[in-house]
TrEMBL record, chains A, B:
Alphabetical UniProt keywords: Glyoxylate bypass, Magnesium, Manganese, Metal-binding, NADP, Oxidoreductase, Tricarboxylic acid cycle
Reactions it catalyzes: D-threo-isocitrate + NADP(+) = 2-oxoglutarate + CO2 + NADPH
Family: Belongs to the isocitrate and isopropylmalate dehydrogenases family.
Biological process per Gene Ontology, one example term: glyoxylate cycle
Gene Ontology MF terms in the entry: isocitrate dehydrogenase (NAD+) activity; isocitrate dehydrogenase (NADP+) activity; magnesium ion binding; NAD binding
Cofactor(s) annotated in UniProt: Mn(2+); Mg(2+)
EC annotation from Swiss-Prot or TrEMBL: 1.1.1.42
Protein name, as recorded: Isocitrate dehydrogenase [NADP]
Range of the intact protein held here: 18 to 364 of 504
Organism name: Rhodoferax aquaticus
Lineage: Bacteria, Pseudomonadati, Pseudomonadota, Betaproteobacteria, Burkholderiales
EC primary class: oxidoreductase
Length: 347, 347
C-alpha cells in the first residue's frame, strides 16, 4: 500500500511563453497517472525580472529548491538587453547541476525523421567551459570570454557518463572535444576520459574531434550511444540530435547534481506561439518521466511513457508535427487528455 | 592570345598522409586543362617537424607564400604530443587569412545524400575566437582558454560574407552566434552583423543562436544560402554541412586574406588510407577551381568544374563513395584521368 507517506515534495515553475500551457498539460497527466508528488510552485523568469528583481528568482525560490531537491521546470525567458545573465545557467550553476542528460530518440514512423534508428543520450557537462560567465571588455574593440575547464569538473561528468551507460544498459561512450586546438582545456577533458574509461572495461569507448564527431552525428546518428562532451559542444549537438529525431519539442532532459536534480524540456519558451494552446507538452512530460524515475516512482514513469508512446503511435501529435498527424493536430491539453486515455496501455 | 605572360606563380605544398596523392591528381587535371600556373613547391608539415623544425615550416616557405600570394595546400598533419601548435592555424593567422569560405553542395542523385537540395556557403571567421591560441594552466587542476573577439575582426568577416553574397548571386546571409550566453564576445559579432546588413538591403539577413541554427542546418540545410559565423562554430558546422552532402571529401575551401589566399580541401590528411592511391582528390581539385577563379582564370575553372561534375554524373567515384559507384571505385589518379577525359564536356 503506497500512501501519503510515499509522496515526494517537488518544486515546480510554470515558466514563460508556452511554459504555463505545457506545465498544466504535464501536471494533468502526472496526476491522472497517480504520481505521488506534492508540487510547490515558485515564480522565476520574466515576471520576477519585471518586478525589479534582476536575478529573475527570489530567495524563497532557492529555499524551496534546496528543501525539495527536485525541480520540474518549464522554459523561461531571459529578457534581452541590460546586464541580465541567463537564469537557466544561474540555476544550473548555483545548484551544482553538473550533468545535463539529454536522450534523443526517433519515433519513426510515427514522427517523420530522416534518421529512424536514433537512440542516443548526450551527457553534457553543465557548469564549466564558456558558460563560466567570465567575459570582459579589454578595449572598445576587443572583448574576451574565458573558457574554464577543471579536472574535478571533467572527472565528475565523465564518470557520470560511464555510470549512466552501465546502469542503463548502454554499450558505448563517445567523447567529443577539440583538443587538437585547445590542448590544455579540451585536452584535459580528453585525458580524463582516457583515464576513467579504463575503469569501465565492459563499455566500449571512443573519441572524436568535435567537428568530425558532430558531422558523424548529423549523418549517422544511429552509430552513437552515449556521448559525453563539454558544455558548449553539448549545447550545440543536443539541439542538433533532438531536432534530427523530428522535433526539438519531443526531448526532455535531466540536470543532475550531487544533491539536487532539475528536469526540463530542452526547447525554449517559444513566445511566438505562447497562449495559443498549441505547444507540444511532450518535452516537459518526458522530463517529468525522467523525474519520476529519479524519485523512485519508476512504475508510474513507465506507465506514462507507454501511454505517451501509444499516443504518438496513434498518430496524435501537436501542430509542429502536423505533417505526421492523423486528422487535425491536437492542442496541448487535448494531447494530454489523449495520453491520459491511454494510461495502462502499451505501445 | 594568352601566352606565358599570363602565367601566375603559385605556391604548392604536397602535405602529409593522402596529401601527395591528391595533389598529384589535382595538378595533372590543372595541367591538362591548360591552367596558366607556375607552381613553386614548399615543404611543410610532418617531415619538417621531424627534421627538428618545431614550427613545421621553414623561412623560405614563408618567403614563397609572401611572394606568390597564392597557395594551393594539401592536408598536413600536426604530430601529436609535445608543444606543437596546429600548423594549419599558424598559416592562417600568420598570413592574415581572415575568411574561410566553404561551399557545401549536394550532387544528388550522383552522390547519395539525405539532403539533395543543399547549396550553401559557410563563411567562417578564421583568425579569432578560441583559435587565438591563448591557453594557460592556472593550477594543476584548472586550465583556461581565451576566446577573443574584436570589432575589426567581426567587421571584416561580416562584410566579406555580404560582398560574397552580392558577387555570387546569393540571396540571404544567416549569422549564427551564442550571444544569449556570451553577450560581449558573440554579442559583438551579432551587433556588427546587424550594423553591416543595413548596407546590403537587397540581401536578406537573419540570425540564429548557434544551437538552434546548427539544428536547422542538420535538418533543413536547403533553407540556407550564406552562413557567417565565428571560427569555432564555423569549424563545426562546416564539417557537418560537408558531410551531409555525402562526403567531406567533396568540399574545397578558400582562405582569403587582404593580400594572400590559400586553397585547400576541408578534410584532413587521412593517414589510415595514405599511400593506397584510393583517396578522393575532389576536395583539393575543387579548391583549385576556386583558386583559378581567384587568379582570374575563370574559364579554366569552369572547364574543370564541368568536367568534374560530368565525371560524378557518370557514376565515377572513389572508394569512400563506393555505394554510389557504377562498377568498381576509381583510384585517385584514375579519377583524375576520368576528369581529364571529360574536359570540354558539360554536365
Ligand atoms: C537558454 C540557453 C541558456 C540554454 C543553454 O545554452 O544551455 C539552452 O540553449 C539549453 O540548451 O538549455
Ligand atoms: C585541423 C584543424 C586545426 C582545422 C581547424 O580546426 O580549423 C580543421 O578542422 C579545419 O576545419 O580546417
Amino acid at each position: 500500500d503506497r500512501g501519503a507517506a510515499d509522496t515526494v515534495a517537488i518544486t515546480i515553475a510554470h515558466g514563460d511563453g508556452i511554459g504555463p500551457e505545457i506545465m498544466e498539460a504535464t501536471l494533468k497527466v502526472l496526476q491522472a497517472a497517480g504520481a505521488r508528488i506534492a508540487p510547490e510552485t515558485i515564480e522565476i523568469g520574466e515576471k520576477v525580472y519585471l518586478s525589479g528583481n534582476s536575478a529573475g528568482i527570489a530567495p524563497e525560490a532557492w529555499d524551496s529548491l534546496r528543501k525539495t531537491q527536485v525541480f520540474l521546470k518549464a522554459p523561461i525567458t531571459t529578457p534581452s538587453g541590460g546586464g541580465y545573465k541567463s537564469l537557466n545557467v544561474t540555476i544550473r550553476k548555483t545548484l551544482g547541476l553538473y550533468a545535463n542528460v539529454r536522450p534523443c530518440v526517433s519515433y519513426a514512423p510515427f514522427v517523420a525523421t530522416k534518421h529512424p534508428k536514433m537512440d542516443l543520450v548526450i551527457v553534457r557537462e553543465n557548469e564549466e567551459d564558456l558558460y563560466a560567465g567570465i567575459e570582459h571588455r579589454q578595449t572598445d574593440e576587443v572583448f574576451q570570454c574565458l573558457k574554464l575547464i577543471t579536472r574535478p569538473g571533467c572527472e565528475k561528468i565523465v564518470r557520470y557518463a560511464f555510470e549512466y551507460a552501465r546502469n542503463n544498459g548502454r554499450k558505448k561512450v563517445t567523447c567529443m572535444s577539440k583538443d587538437n586546438i585547445m590542448k590544455m582545456t579540451d585536452g584535459l577533458f580528453h585525458k580524463v576520459f582516457d583515464e576513467i574509461k579504463l575503469q569501465y572495461p565492459e563499455i566500449e569507448s571512443e573519441h572524436f574531434i568535435i567537428d568530425i564527431g558532430a558531422a558523424k552525428l548529423a549523418t549517422r546518428p544511429e552509430r552513437f550511444d552515449v556521448i559525453v562532451t563539454p558544455n558548449l559542444y553539448g549545447d550545440i549537438i543536443s539541439d542538433i540530435a533532438a531536432e534530427m529525431t523530428g522535433s526539438v519539442g519531443l526531448a526532455g532532459s535531466a540536470n543532475i547534481g550531487e544533491h539536487i536534480a532539475m528536469f526540463e524540456a530542452i526547447h525554449g519558451s517559444a513566445p511566438d506561439i505562447a497562449g495559443k494552446g498549441i505547444a507540444n507538452p511532450s518535452g516537459l512530460l518526458l522530463a517529468a518521466v525522467m523525474m519520476l524515475v529519479h524519485i523512485r516512482q519508476a512504475d508510474i514513469a513507465s506507465k506514462i511513457h507507454n501511454a505517451w508512446l501509444k499516443t504518438i503511435e496513434d498518430g496524435i501529435v501537436t501542430a509542429e508535427l502536423a505533417a505526421s498527424a492523423v486528422g487535425r493536430p491536437f492542442g496541448s491539453m487535448d494531447f494530454a487528455d489523449a495520453v491520459i486515455e491511454r494510461l495502462g496501455q502499451l505501445p
